[in-house]
Amino acid sequence: MTNSIKVAVIGVGRWGVHLLRNFLAHPQVEVVAVVDPNPECLAKVERQYKFTEDVLLTTEWQKLQQLPDLNAVVIATPAVTHYSLIVDALNWGCHVLSEKPLTLNPSECYELCKLAEKQQQILMVDHTYLFHPAVEKGQALLQSGAVGDLRYGYATRTHLGPVRQDVDALWDLAIHDIAIFNNWLGESPIFAQATGKAWLQTAENKSSSSNPLSDLVQVNLTYPSGFQAFIHLCWLNPDKQRRLAVVGNRGSLIFDEMLSEAPLMLMEGEFERQENRFIPVNQQRKVIEIEKGEPLKKVCDGFIECIVQNTPSSISNGRVGAELVEILTALTQSLEAGGKTISVARQN
């Protein structure tokens, strides 16, 4: 492939296989290497895609350094490994697309951002929801004043598993809804508060001495404008929900991922005051038409476009990822302090 962008994918587990699929299908990309510590994962993708001998399949990611003209590295490994992998890739002169969260530490996140800027490399984070057509359309509707003056928001993200053993329900689930709220509002929270409950992996029944992992987390975020967002997270609830709403004085904008045929809805309605009574008026339900398309494909296409144009992503660059890690860190501090309100620290 002439003048193609040579890409290596690190990690082909549950999510990495979808990143690999999209990059293999991209007309400007040549996948030159696949890395995974599990030989069975490598064997599975080799059987599925029938790679030629030109594609390096290895359990040792350091071998990527030996590849000539490698342009970009895509990382879909556990978050605890992200920092060292990204540092190496940037120092090798490669652009990087990392699975979320960028790292588990805000200081590390900003260090990576500065390194990418110094090296003049693209650092992008796969916050897939930010590329969902419903989220993109929702942002435009809110900016147009579709629901009037914004008042508050709420989100619910529940299901029955999978139960993580490395992070709690907060770190596993909340980043999606916080990313959407930040994107829709055009601002980032200044105060964070969280409470939680652990039933499955408590201090008593965990084999290690680490803190219990909350199965249920309730989040309250306060934004500079005064807007508040309430988020309900649980991986111990068979009632699977993926629902987020922003409420204004003239209606609510609702993104319900479980309604696959009509995930974005505008519920109009407001009050008319008659003496000492408030009467609901102008009530109607509107299904918002959105474009079709796989959000992850838009992530991958956007990453390649950023490389070609040598311009950081305006939607999900490294600093967007770092900001989300700052918020999760503040929420963790609140959770560990029994629900104390924590100011969200800001670095640059």
TrEMBL record:
Residue spans crossing the bilayer: none
Organism: Calothrix parasitica NIES-267
Pfam families noted in UniProt: GFO_IDH_MocA, GFO_IDH_MocA_C3
Top-rank taxon: Bacteria
Listed GO MF terms: nucleotide binding
Sequence ranges assigned to domain Gfo/Idh/MocA-like oxidoreductase N-terminal in this UniProt record: 5-127
Name recorded for this polypeptide: Oxidoreductase domain-containing protein
GFO/IDH/MocA-like oxidoreductase domain span: 139-253
